[in-house]
């Protein structure tokens, strides 16, 4: 599904990712753990084509997309939910969702996609006419995920979905992520909340200072001293 090989990324001359290699197989949820500044958002943006300067291979379904801009990357079935959600506050829930169906193949089937999104997030159905800016933080996160699903992705990149959410909302968002994955969408889940991430994912990687510092199944990562030290500070 997603194959990242020797990926370097830069901000100007400053290198933020160093030789990152990881995979997400069909139907998997894979967690990427790491502290602030480890390079998690840079990784998501580099895969999504939102990052201008990168080097290495990023392939989706065997096709190298490393040099494509974001609007082309989404044509290969990759959708991103960026950190901080970024919904359009002055537009309704419905209009935000419809904007997600811009991909050519998604546009024709937006009605079915809408039903699917409302099935996963009943709260969004109840609030379909409400302005996105008036939703709670958790509801906005649901909307951001729903909007990404409207593009009918095969791979969803999620950047810190729990950020700033109350625990009860985080529970709902993670239940939804598991429901999305159960429908066959592969997920790359960037998350600082180690417990929740490893619960949702089958396996994961640890990023530290822009490099892969560890990998394994969720059970292995939970037991790993490096994860305990580096992310949990224990
Ligand atoms: N626009 C930018 N310009 C210059 N350096 C940047 C920029 N964005 C991020 N960086 C640097 O790149 C490194 C990785 O940052 P990144 O945001 O990817 O980390 P992160 O793991 O997502 O952290 P957080 O959890 O705090 O979002 C950091 O050293 C950061 O200071």
Automatic annotation (TrEMBL):
One of its GO terms (biological process) is L-amino acid transport. Transmembrane segments: none annotated. It comes from the Bacteria. Residues 2-234 form the ABC transporter domain. CDD domains: ABC_TM1139_LivF_branched. It comes from Phytohabitans flavus. The keyword Transmembrane helix does not apply. This is ABC transporter ATP-binding protein. One of its GO terms (molecular function) is branched-chain amino acid transmembrane transporter activity. Coiled coil: none annotated. Belongs to the ABC transporter superfamily. Keywords: Amino-acid transport, ATP-binding, Nucleotide-binding, Transport.
